[in-house]
Specification:
about 60 residues, alpha+beta, 1 helix
């Protein structure tokens, strides 16, 4: 069974992404994907969702 963790970043910088990746991977989560939310008026992402997965035993 796979468990998912989604972390929302309201401030999208290289430092904030690194911090989230380092924080959750050390806890046993595996990076899966990152989705950026962009506004038409700006090329810079307004926010991001970082997705992690990990295997869990059924019933836990």
């Amino acid at each position: 069974m796979i468990e998912y963790k989604v972390v929302e970043l309201a401030v999208v910088t290289d430092e904030s992404i690194e911090a989230v990746l380092n924080n959750w991977t050390v806890q046993g989560w595996h990076f899966d994907n990152v989705q950026f939310v962009v506004r038409e008026a700006s090329k810079r992402p307004a926010m991001a969702f970082v997705i992690f997965t990990r295997a869990v035993e059924p019933g836990h």
